[in-house]
Amino acid sequence: RALSLYRQLLRASQTMPTPNRRNYIKQKTQSEFRKHASLTDEEEIDFQLRLADTNLDTVLVQAEHLSRLFNDPEYQNYN
């Protein structure tokens, strides 16, 4: 389950519309999974997996929202 979430988060990072955001999510995902790789407490593992799942949902929603925003001609007029 952890490996699946890891891969999904890395794939989701590529859906971000800006290179900075893509890199941030990729690096954050890698560092968080490395940091928790040695966990042995089942409750803590379950918590971290649920947190990763929530983060995946957040990344997907943000990517969709930001992509729509950056493609909106009205937004382009503000930059």
From TrEMBL:
Limits of the Complex 1 LYR protein domain: 1-57
Signal sequence, renumbered to the chain: none
InterPro entries given in the database record: Complex1_LYR_dom (IPR008011)
Annotated GO CC locations: mitochondrion
Any GO BP: mitochondrial respiratory chain complex II assembly
Pfam families, alphabetized: Complex1_LYR
Name of the protein: Complex 1 LYR protein domain-containing protein
Taxonomic source organism: Thalassiosira pseudonana (Marine diatom)
